[in-house]
Amino acid sequence: MRPAARLTLLLLRRGGDTDRGALLLPVAAFGVVTALMLTVLGGARFFFTIRGPMAETYQSLAALAVILLVIPLLTLCGSAARLSARRRDEHLSTLRLLGAPTSTVTSMTVLESTLLAAAGTLAGVLGHLLLAPLVGLVSFHDSRLGAGNVLLGVPGTVLCVVALVVMAAVSSLVGLRTVVVSPLGVRTRQDAPRMSLVRVVAILLAVGLGLVAGDQLGDAQDIVGLVIGLVATFGVTMAVLNTLGPWVLRTIARRQARTASGPKSAERLLAARTVLDSPKAAWRQVSGVSLTSFVAVFAGVGLALSNGMAGTGPMAREDAIMLVDLRTGILLTLVISFVTVAASVAVNQSADILDRRDLYVSLDRMGMPRSRVDTARRRAVLSPLRVVSLGSALVAALLIAPLSGIALLTDPLSGLVIAAALAAGIGIVWLSLLATAPLLTRVTGSTVRTAD
């Protein structure tokens, strides 16, 4: 353990500005995840202190909001643990080729991931403390939440931090197998990840079961039972989307690589090969928008439902308060979802540039204009983004249709919210691509090359 610790600290200390930037990315990602996770869980805890006839409804809807937000945050957490994995895998594979034992490589992996995750989660706790007064200004149950009701508390905070750090360690170990078994394949980048057809069939069966369960839930009368069923169904389906996504992107990229032609064939081929090089990394670029598209469908239907209820005439004071809280909760869920997307996209795209810096430098030295390299980079993200966002929205619509009915799903307000959310998600990705372009310039060098 002691040699592994010394080697880990040596690798963390030594390295250029690019390597240091690669180390800061997972720290930043874990900071964002921790701050948002603690804020979401702390806010949800408030609803379980409400008493009265509407308490169960508030608590059930809070549980639904938590599952819709926590799954994307856990996805971002898993991505954060694998950020700059290529840099780490290359270092570890070199050590394996030099004769380092498996125990040393394993210890180094766990130690590095744990240190970075711990630093990020501690920063996230500070972020949670700063966010609490701001979120506390939001009104629920006819009064402001207050910072005290948003703070999760010491036991919950410690438990959440430990869980995130453990998840980081486990995620890093999952990707360690190829380094141990085939270090030369990792070093020469001959380890393109694959997804078996059996897993695809299993995933499609899970989606089918989700649709059947959603149809059965449509007959439920108890709000608690309905929401519990929704939480289970939606949680499984969102996890399925996260698993199926890389396979979908690989299939699309294969077709694009075969059909690349025309004046921009070089950019198209490079974009397709970028996705095929690591479908999982490509999925991490767009997974945030996929999950936000999923959430947007439920938000649109929820707002359409609340709008319809408001137009039915006079209602009791508690019902009116509940209606206002429903709208506030939906909008707050969307806002947090977009913040998650922005953080996920910015961090993952920065990590992608740093992980592929050797490729970008080689293309630059071969004389490929940097503008064309950047075009290929943007195309590798935006091309699958449209399919992923629309596909996720379609799956969500299929799940919620038995519960809401076609009328709410096709309501103009619902359609407007869904369209606006999809446009906002794609816009966030596009802006993030523009924002990370200077990093590409810095990685490839200060001299701008032009084609002969």
From TrEMBL:
The keyword Electron transport does not apply. This is FtsX-like permease family protein. Keywords: Cell membrane, Membrane, Transmembrane, Transmembrane helix. It is a multi-pass membrane protein. The keyword Cell membrane applies. Its main location: membrane. It is found in: Cell membrane. Residues 82-173 form the ABC3 transporter permease C-terminal domain. InterPro entries: ABC3_permease_C (IPR003838). The chain crosses the membrane at residues 21-48, 60-81, 115-138, 150-176, 197-217, 223-249, 286-306, 326-347, 387-410, 416-440. One of its GO terms (cellular component) is plasma membrane.
